[in-house]
Amino acid sequence: MEPVLLYDTTLRDGTQGENISFTADEKLIIAKMLDDIGIHYIEGGWPGSNPRDKQFFDLAKRTEFINSRLTAFGSTRRPGISPDDDQNLKALIDSGTPAVAIFGKTWGLHIEQIMENTLEENFAMIRDSVEYLKNHDLEVIYDAEHFFDGYRENRDYALKTLDAAIESGADFIVLCDTNGGTLPFDIESAIADVQKALGKKYRKRNKGNNIRIGIHTHNDSGLAVANSIIAVNAGAVMVHGTVNGYGERCGNADMTSIIPILCAKMERHCLPKESLAKLTKLSRVVSEMANMIPLNSRPFVGKSAFAHKGGIHVSAIMKEPRAYEHMRPDLVGNARRVLVSDLSGKSNVEYKARELGLELGGNGFDSRKIVSEIKRLEQEGYQFDVADGSFKILVEKFTDQFKPLFDLESFRITVEKDKDKPCSAHATIKISVGDKNEITAAEGQGPVGALDNALRKALGNFYPDLDSMRLVDFKVRVIDGREGTAARVRVLIESRDKDDIWSTIGVSEDIIEASWHALADSFQYKLAKHI
């Protein structure tokens, strides 16, 4: 069976997503990661449209790609001019890539009403552009924009646009669901029709080879991945997508789902098996560079993709993971997670304790008693399924395994507001480490920032490794707003160093006290890692 070729357009289509932007240097880093896992084609951008993409292709010329063919993107020539005079086509050639992708119009609505062009001139634009690029010894991937919308409205014309590209020498014909509104069974029937209508002519020109169809889908109906998969099942040999499904409006087909489905579920060769294990890291690095919060529920690579909360589920996976997991998480570089909450049974606690390297049974506390205590605390507002750091410290305290690396003696925070200046916060803290006391003061942007700075400064005299730790997220939730300003609040803090990410929690009627508990747990967790 013919391998499926993966065509990644994160660096072009992905950047059209809201609030997503990459520098030329960041694009090069992502391109090298895509090359490392074995993506066949990497669409680097549109060199004729903006200076950043031109800069990327200039950088790429000095970079060796081992597994991937770098591809420049553009459009067919403009109406009424020759390809030699079209600056967009010239930019594609100047980009120096071995392959180029150009899109052309399929839908009469766009040709006549949006572009104010004629149907005949559109044919000429497709033929001229593909032929011109082939004459420059380039592999040409022709994107039939709005193919499925045009096909529904005027089948014969849509097929003739594909025929124009095939006759001119296009290597791939990519059918695009640009508006993302097509349903899977319509994708399947349209591909069958294209193969029947044009396949004979294609085979004649290409020495008996079948027409090479690609699929490019958008997610406006939540079906981009499903449409891509059914297209492959119907005969498509190239799949377009983006890492994490980033893209305009609702995004594009998500490569982090398409790849494991093709490789692991359909057993269609598209990547080496060892590359699958790099998907989770790829997803998270691209999220970081895009400055987007990773989606926990993202299939295969999300933090919650293999997370188990219900006690019955956890009890089952401890015996046989297949009972509640559709595949091994390590195949895609992910990991199984067991969450502890008021829905937990003793299996959750035992699994989690083992994962964190804790021994149960100390101080008379077994897993059942710990479950009971966790349920009581969650009734008060704690939420341990999102605070592994605090859970570890809690179990250590229950079982006499907790060894505090500092103790709070006191702190004081003042917030000052001048007439014409923003608020400023000052914190003074007194802690003890062993038999020594340390008193320190610091400023910060807000009371919690000042407290963090003061604690970090005080501990720095005893534990110099704290420079590698930073707080990356701070969340406050009102647990029950009916009490007004006296309501209990939950504070969640996420911290990280070069090796790890952990979350801690604090609950109180006073937001500063709740913040302190979460902050103190975060530092205790960090320091305990190095003992």
Describe the protein's architecture and organization.
By secondary structure, this protein is α/β, with parallel strands linked by helices. It folds into two domains: 5-271, Aldolase class I (TIM Barrel, Alpha-Beta Barrel), CATH 3.20.20.70; 407-528, Double Stranded RNA Binding Domain. 40% of the residues lie in helices and 19% in strands. It is built from 18 helices and 16 strands. It has helices at residues 24-37, 51-60, 87-94, 108-114, 119-134, 147-153, 155-167, 184-205, 224-233, 255-265, 273-276, 279-290, 311-319, 346-355, 367-380, 388-398, 447-460, 511-528, and strands spanning 5-8, 41-45, 69-75, 99-105, 139-145, 172-177, 213-217, 238-241, 307-308, 337-338, 407-416, 424-433, 436-444, 470-478, 489-496, 501-508. The strands form four sheets. An eight-stranded parallel beta barrel has the order 1-2-3-4-5-6-7-8, surrounded by nine helices. The chain has a three-stranded antiparallel beta sheet with strand order 11-12-13, with helices on one face. It has a three-stranded antiparallel beta sheet with strand order 14-15-16. Helix 1 (24-37) packs antiparallel against helix 12 (279-290) and helix 6 (147-153) packs across helix 7. It is elongated and about 85 Å long. It starts with a strand and ends with a helix. The relative contact order is 0.07. The model has no long low-confidence stretch (mean pLDDT 89).
